[in-house]
């Protein structure tokens, strides 16, 4: 019998709850506040069937463009053929979690502002651009001795007799 092409086909493991994470959904899932412009990760909770996104969006990161009473409008990029389309979908809060994709960037901005303030106090102008890690410095190997290896000739006759 051929495989089906339904809405939830091939999601047996994809939508299953993780080990020791079955049961009731924590209250913090519902108490989180999402604002327009926030980055969120779409992670489908198989226990909640309402407001569930299509399996394509599972594991995708998008940006919040709308907030309703029980759901969040998320804008996700989707490659269709040779173009990338911005898809706007509504997903219930159970299937969404705040993304950590901008954490490093925000931390870097904070550190750069601090460095600029310190440099301004000293009366200097500094560059906060990231520089690629250059090549490692060279060094001379000292106290190394050169040893030459030569292969032992293979003797077929002795090998067949059972060794030397």
Strand order of the largest sheet: 4-3-2-1-5
Uncertain runs: none
The count of β-strands is 5
Q: What percent of residues adopt helix (DSSP H or I)?
A: 10-25%
Protein structure class: alpha+beta
Q: Compute the number of helices.
A: 3
C-alpha termini separation: 64 Å
Return the average pLDDT rounded to an integer.
93
- CA-based gyration radius: 30 Å
The sequence of SSEs as H and E is HEEEEEHH
| Largest sheet features | 5 strands, antiparallel
Question: In percent, how much strand structure appears in the residues?
Answer: 15-25%
Q: How would you describe the shape?
A: flat
Structure report:
With 164 residues, this protein is α+β, with helices and mostly antiparallel strands. The chain contains three helices and five strands, in the order H-E-E-E-E-E-H-H. The chain has helices at residues 28-31, 103-122, 156-161, and strands at residues 39-42, 61-67, 71-80, 83-92, 96-98. A five-stranded antiparallel beta sheet has the order 4-3-2-1-5, with no helix packed on it. Strand 2 and strand 3 (71-80) form a beta hairpin. The longest helix is centred in the C-terminal third of the chain and has 20 residues, at 103-122. It is flat, with a radius of gyration of 30 Å. 9% of the residues are buried. The model has no long low-confidence stretch (mean pLDDT 93).
């Amino acid at each position: 019998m051929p495989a089906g092409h339904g809405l939830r086909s091939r999601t047996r493991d994809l939508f299953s709850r993780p080990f020791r994470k079955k049961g009731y959904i924590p209250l913090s899932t519902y108490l989180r506040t999402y604002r327009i412009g926030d980055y969120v990760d779409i992670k489908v909770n198989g226990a909640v069937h309402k407001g569930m996104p299509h399996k394509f969006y599972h594991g995708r990161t998008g940006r919040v463009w709308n907030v309703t009473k029980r759901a969040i409008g998320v804008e996700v990029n989707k490659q269709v053929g040779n173009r990338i389309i911005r898809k706007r979908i509504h997903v219930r809060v159970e299937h969404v979690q705040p993304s950590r994709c901008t954490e490093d960037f925000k931390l870097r901005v904070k550190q750069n502002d601090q460095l600029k303030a310190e440099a301004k106090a000293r009366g200097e102008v500094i560059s906060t651009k990231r520089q690629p890690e250059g090549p490692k410095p060279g060094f001379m190997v000292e106290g190394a001795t050169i040893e030459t290896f030569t292969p032992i000739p293979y003797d077929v006759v002795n090998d067949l007799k059972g060794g030397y």
